[in-house]
Design brief:
The protein is mostly helical. It has one domain. The chain contains 3 helices and no strands. It is globular, with a radius of gyration of 12 Å. The chain starts with about 30 loop residues before the first helix and ends with a helix. Bound molecules: iron/sulfur cluster. The site of iron/sulfur cluster has 14 residues, from helix 1 and helix 2.
């Protein structure tokens, strides 16, 4: 089970969630900028991967980038 205490330190906490739930990298730029120096980028990303969240920007990656990362991880795991 993922400890969600990291949410308290998220750069996006209290912000407009619509910024994060857009399709495509171009539209996601504002969210990706916020993620860039977010202190909880790693747990945020791992949470999204564990929960198989297939929409929006999480952990500094769009859904497409997360799918690509997941494929690379699975390929490495064999
Ligand atoms: S990495 Fe991005 S989406 Fe995740 S908590 Fe930080 S600002 Fe929010």
């Amino acid at each position: 089970m993922n400890d969600r205490g990291w949410i308290e330190r998220a750069n996006c906490r209290g912000g407009d969630p619509d910024v994060f739930f857009v399709r495509g990298t171009t539209h996601a730029r504002a969210a990706l900028r916020l993620c860039q120096d977010c202190p909880v980028q790693e747990p945020c990303l791992e949470y999204a991967l564990e929960q198989e969240i297939d929409f929006g920007v999480w952990g500094g990656l769009t859904e497409r980038q997360r799918r690509s990362l997941q494929r690379r991880r699975l390929a490495r795991a064999g």
